[in-house]
Amino acid sequence: MTEATFDVVAIGNAIVDILAQADDAFIQEQGMTKGSMQLMFSPADADALYAKMGPGREVSGGSAANTVAGIAALGGRCGFIGQVADDQLGQVFAHDIRAAGIRYNTAVRAGEPTTARCLIFVTPDGQRTMNTFLGASQFLPEAALDRELIASGAILYLEGYLWDPEEPRRAMRAAIDIARGAGRRVAFTLSDVFCINRHGDDFRKLMADGLIDILFANENELLALCQTEDFEAAVERAAGQVPLVVVTRSEKGAIAVKGGQRFAVAAEPIERVVDTTGAGDLFAAGFLHGQAQGHGVETSLKLGALCAAEIISHYGARPEADLKTLAAEKLG
Amino acid sequence: MTEATFDVVAIGNAIVDILAQADDAFIQEQGMTKGSMQLMFSPADADALYAKMGPGREVSGGSAANTVAGIAALGGRCGFIGQVADDQLGQVFAHDIRAAGIRYNTAVRAGEPTTARCLIFVTPDGQRTMNTFLGASQFLPEAALDRELIASGAILYLEGYLWDPEEPRRAMRAAIDIARGAGRRVAFTLSDVFCINRHGDDFRKLMADGLIDILFANENELLALCQTEDFEAAVERAAGQVPLVVVTRSEKGAIAVKGGQRFAVAAEPIERVVDTTGAGDLFAAGFLHGQAQGHGVETSLKLGALCAAEIISHYGARPEADLKTLAAEKLG
Fold first, then answer.
1. Which of A21, A210, B40, B233 has its CA 20 to 30 A from that of B271?
2. Predicted TM-score (pTM) above 0.80
């Protein structure tokens, strides 16, 4: 096994987020499930919902992409693989991820559909409700995988969301083989309860087959994955199959289980929750950076909580503050 | 003269801002003048600078467009005229201005160049340094003017920036004729010192010809326009030709002169200046809304200061807070 030249290589949907404020009545009227991610299958659906949206701001997003952006902001070396179209939003995505210092060289895809957009409605409580048009992102082909990049990352990080479209799902499986073949660890985030409802069998099989080394979930996702309503039972079940399980619990902080030992961290106190978009993604960023730096689980959890707190204090899921300095202050 | 159905109709560059953090060293290295607006004449120049920029966030901008977005957020009825291209950034601009409740029906322009972009570097002190690629915006033809819309606005609001390209300059002059022919007031913002250096003669002639009813400037712009270093002399000179002169003075607040009487307002105290982009635009919004609502100069100045304070407390030049409620609280 050669030494890893990247800390984390992620594969995920390459999305530009469009964020706007909305009230709870709007979320209800539109039949959205608050706090979840819903797919929009046609450009017409996406346009119709966009027309109902308030004035927006655009920030690059995508769950795994947000995570590597966070790790890079902390000083980690990252790569990203994800599909954009040959359009302005694709240029924005590619610019932002490269400007964050991340290796990104997935070739753009010509023609329709456009680059993925996620229409995010942020309610006054800071909760985000997402509506994603996957666009070009759902056509990430196995052939687009940079095998060398994947093999050179200490950790391969995958998002559950990518299981929805067929081509990326195939690509994910191939990427897992490449990473494991190179002796790397595979980290996986469950993404969303509805996503688990759609692909739980696949996710459970990945775990049962011992293909996942680090699992990220929030409470509800873990319950859905383990098909139980008992949190402790769910944690036990997941920890029985995955060497390192990390569960975020919003304002209750997060826990992790490794080798039968359980660790916990409280949520960082913050002045005002502006927009929770990316909270889980940035928690994963802090945690993975801690792992990559050789820190223990406890310190990794602390870094996760710190990054999550930064991201929910402003709009958008890419860090605005100097995470490196914040982390140095925190860890002393 | 028929009753006006719009409070303010604005004509301006239709721009999407791309904002990123930068340090002072970068501004210097790039040979930019901190705090100013510089034009980029080719798409290649724009792309080259974009490549050097950090991760960005996109928010609709354009000076006069920001102003009407502010007025609309305060509850005013507004229209906007400005040229975008048939591309994704054009869709973003059109969506955002319509979503703000503003009448906007300028037809998109097919083919090259793209919709205007402004690359805005925000330094740690909150100051913004702008680099604009005018793109489609510079091809706003006189034929695109909605004459009925202009004639139905109590105030026509124009930005000095539009004097740079030839076609919009012609359109501006025609719009002034339409507005004055309909018995409306014409408000004009000087935009930028360098812009005045380029077009001061035109601006001075507009004033001398009695075509401007309300003039907006900051201190440096007024000095450049009046070709003096003496602030009092400049105020006097401008007030001799324009019935209502409004001068913003950053942290010193703002003054206005009307009918020989001078009014002043202090700057609103704010916790932290995040990004001054749009401060002048939103000051104009508050002031013009006050005027449209029939308030006196003093109250109009207060509204201006309030809106400017809101906009500099976050990234981007479009309001995020509920300006209407803020204004109601402020004015009691």
1. A21
2. yes
